[in-house]
Specification:
Elements: E1 8-13, H1 21-34, E2 38-42, H2 45-51, E3 54-57, H3 84-96, E4 101-106, H4 108-121, E5 125-129, H5 145-166, E6 169-174, H6 181-190, E7 194-196, H7 204-216, E8 222-227, H8 235-245, E9 251-255, H9 267-285, E10 291-296, E11 299-304, H10 305-310, H11 317-326
Parallel strand pairs: 1-2, 1-4, 4-5, 5-10, 6-8, 6-9, 7-8
Antiparallel strand pairs: 2-3, 10-11
Helix pairs in contact: 1-9, 2-3, 5-6, 6-11, 7-8
């Protein structure tokens, strides 16, 4: 299978951590062991790549990490790597450690850096999508998205108990940067009265109309899910607009924040991370480079890093329609 004479592969995690990154790392290391390829783990993402923070890994190095959240390789966001000079230092370290190819586990920023590294050095790079935002084109699900969504649903179920007890309207803000995937999926699963997404702007007046209709039908408490990048404003902004128009409403705001990144990965995230990790190694051995491995319709696929970065991955419009129907 090894058509590229790859003897040693480097692997790193970069950007925001996502549950399942460790599962992907484990799969990369064990797939390399299976194919008799050496592995260098790079600590602290691109920062460690520049500094030469490398450590040889083997199949025992990744024992008992399948169900751990976060990343044992640590992660960072490197401003130095954004410069040509910084990437030149990283390239020198890659050559110094005799690394023939690099696997990067992360999101949009990670793949942008990996793509530039390939352009400037020709070193084969492979991306594995690890991002709770689920905003990368070329895969139905990024590693970490399923776990993060389950975390949100669990939190909203608990918030609903107190909302019902006090006849309150809770505005729950979830992560996703400029992507509404978490908000939409969790909103449907948790029975939100309204879901405010960056991709589907909802004005305060439209939200008020939904809340009034709900009140008229006899509903005394509601949950509104707000994606952090919503153009209509933050959960605090929307809650204030609603309260200003209807002072009788008892509103509360909960920002779930970084708890969405933590926790043990779900079964689904462990499985897709394992599949992508093996596919990343085998893709490099087949001669693929400057691409991201993904899963589309439950099949391993490869998409150019440039396309995965620049093409938008949009939420399912039909799910948004369904969410509105079920929120009556």
């Amino acid at each position: 299978m090894n058509q590229q004479n790859i003897r040693r592969i480097g692997v790193l995690t970069s950007g925001g951590d996502a549950p399942g990154m460790n599962a992907a790392l484990r799969a990369v290391v064990r797939a390399c062991a299976f194919h008799q390829i050496e592995v260098e783990g790079v600590f602290q993402g691109f920062t460690g790549l520049i500094a030469g923070d490398f450590k040889r890994l083997n199949e025992r190095s990744v024992a008992r990490i399948l169900g751990r959240g976060g990343t044992i390789l640590k992660s960072s966001r490197s401003k130095e790597f954004m410069t040509t000079e910084g990437r030149a230092k990283a390239i020198d370290q890659i050559k110094k450690h005799h690394v023939d190819a690099l696997i990067t586990i992360g999101g949009n920023g990670t793949f942008t850096g990996a793509h530039k590294l390939f352009e400037e050095s020709g070193i084969p790079v492979m991306g594995i999508p690890g991002s709770i935002d689920n905003d990368l084109f070329g895969t139905d699900h990024c590693i970490g998205f399923d776990t993060a969504t389950n975390t949100v649903v669990d939190a909203v179920d608990k918030i609903r108990d107190t909302a019902t007890s006090h006849n309150r309207i809770f505005f729950v803000e979830v992560m996703g940067r400029n992507s509404g995937f978490i908000a939409l999926k969790a909103g449907i699963a948790a029975g939100a009265i309204a879901i405010v997404l960056p991709e589907d702007e909802m004005t305060a007046d439209e939200l008020m109309q939904i809340l009034r209709s709900s009140e008229d039908s006899g509903k005394s408490s509601s949950i509104v899910i707000v994606a952090e990048g919503a153009k209509s404003g933050s959960a605090y902004d929307l809650a204030k607009k609603v309260t200003d128009q209807h002072p009788d409403y008892d509103t509360r705001v909960t920002v779930l924040g970084h708890l969405q990144r933590g926790g043990a990965p779900s079964c689904y995230d462990r499985v897709i991370a394992s599949r992508m990790g093996v596919a990343a190694v085998e893709g490099l051995l087949q001669g693929r480079k400057d691409v991201m491995v993904g899963l589309v319709n439950d099949r391993e696929t490869y998409t150019s890093l440039e396309e995965s970065i620049h093409r938008a991955n949009l939420p399912n419009r039909d799910e948004l329609r369904i969410a509105r129907i079920l929120a009556i």
